[in-house]
Structure formats: structure tokens, C-alpha cells
Specification:
- Helix content is 76%, strand content 0%.
- By secondary structure, the chain is mainly α.
- It has one domain: MFS general substrate transporter like domains (Growth Hormone, Chain: A, Up-down Bundle).
- The radius of gyration is 24 Å and the shape is globular.
- The relative contact order is 0.21.
């Protein structure tokens, strides 16, 4: 008769070892600078592709400006977008990125508050000035935002963290695209949408100044807390 044998089963509890992208994300959302950058970039998306990119032509049309003329202003803006973005990259390597973003958002907010005046006066000169200025400022926020993300989270993790910050940018664009149309449906004018966007830009300029200059923290030491 065969002897009975005892079978011992050892259950091994797996250890959680987060991947690089998980560690970078967990670290990012635990740092104040991440939310300030995401908040300011949310406003960036709101005030560019979400608002101007979606509603500018219709806004001009409500003042009797032909759609072709308004589209021409957008195309004209694109020329200065290339210049402004390139120049912003050069400036970001030489000056405090926080102050660059402060002025970018503040001046963008001012231009949005002045746009209704330019349209009501039906002044092509002021509209061209707006197109030039907004073009210079359109993607100028990207280099210093990436710079701050790199300074704060380190070169290795900054790409992943910036990806989430950019997601906030796209969310802002979606809010403005929908919100602008909703406000027009309620008030039969885009005036409030553009004025609100201008105020939000001033808020964005304050967000970036809340980021500490020496904010870089070790991701490895921070992630131990969430393991």
C-alpha cells in the first residue's frame, strides 16, 4: 500500500514593481508643480485651438467680416506662429521659464480682451495686429512648459509627465470648443466666451508663478511612499 504524502503549497505574494511610466505618473500627480503646469496648459488649449481655432471665423462673421477674410487672418497668424515658437525656444534656454509663461499668458489674455473692441470697430489694422501677436504667442508656451517639466521631474521622467500635461491642454481645447458654442446658443454672441478666456489667461499667468524654481525632486525616493 502506497504511503500518503503531504503536499505543501507555498503561496508567494507578488511584489508590485511599477514601470517607468507608472512611476512617473504617480510621482507627477503627487507634486504641486504638475497640477500648476497642467492647469496653465489647460488654459493654453482653451484659449488657442479650442477657442480661436473653433470660433474665431464665426465670431468675425457676427460682425459682418467675411469668412474668407477671417480665414486669411488665421493663415497670416500661422506665419508668425513659426517665428514665435522658434524664438520662444531660444528664450527658454536663456531665461526663467516661469516668467516667460507669465508674460505669454498675460499678454494673450490682454489681446483676447481687446479683440471685441477691434471687431466692433471693424478695424482691419487692429485685426492684423491681433493676428500677428496671437501668432507669435500661439505655441510659444510649449518650450518653457517642457523646460519646467524637465527641471521639475528630470530628463528621464519629463517626457511621460509632459504627456499627461499635454492631455490637460487637449481637455481645455475640448471645453472651449463646446463651451463657446454653448454660450453662443444661450446669449447669441461669442462675446462672453472670449472675455472669459481672457480672464482665464490671466489666471494661467498666476499658476506658473506658483511653481518653485528649485522644484526638482527625486522620483525614486518619492515613489517609495506609494509602493
Amino acid at each position: 500500500m502506497e504511503p500518503l504524502t503531504c503536499l505543501k503549497i507555498h503561496l508567494v505574494r507578488p511584489h508590485f514593481h511599477p514601470s517607468l511610466k507608472e512611476r512617473a505618473f504617480l510621482f507627477g500627480i503627487s507634486v504641486k508643480a504638475f497640477w500648476l503646469l497642467a492647469g496653465s496648459f489647460f488654459i493654453c488649449g482653451l484659449s488657442t485651438s479650442g477657442l480661436i481655432g473653433t470660433h474665431f471665423i464665426s465670431y468675425c462673421s457676427s460682425f459682418g467680416i467675411p469668412a474668407v477674410t477671417a480665414a486669411g487672418l488665421i493663415a497670416f497668424r500661422g506665419i508668425f506662429d513659426l517665428i514665435g515658437t522658434t524664438l520662444s525656444g531660444w528664450l527658454s534656454d536663456r531665461y526663467d521659464n516661469r516668467w516667460l509663461l507669465f508674460w505669454y499668458y498675460a499678454l494673450r489674455g490682454l489681446s483676447l480682451l481687446l479683440l471685441p473692441f477691434a471687431l466692433s470697430e471693424n478695424s482691419m489694422f487692429f485685426l492684423i495686429v491681433f493676428a500677428v501677436f496671437y501668432g507669435l504667442d500661439w505655441i510659444a508656451t510649449v518650450p518653457p512648459t517642457i523646460g519646467l517639466a524637465t527641471q521639475t521631474f528630470g530628463v528621464e521622467k519629463s517626457g511621460i509627465v509632459y504627456g499627461w500635461i499635454f492631455a490637460a491642454h487637449q481637455a481645455g481645447a475640448g471645453v472651449a470648443a463646446y463651451g463657446g458654442g454653448l454660450l453662443f446658443s444661450i446669449f447669441n454672441t461669442y462675446q462672453l466666451a472670449f472675455l472669459m478666456a481672457g480672464v482665464f489667461c490671466f489666471l494661467g499667468s498666476l499658476f506658473v508663478m506658483g511653481i518653485r524654481k528649485s522644484a526638482e525632486v527625486s522620483v525614486d525616493s518619492k515613489i517609495e511612499v506609494v509602493k
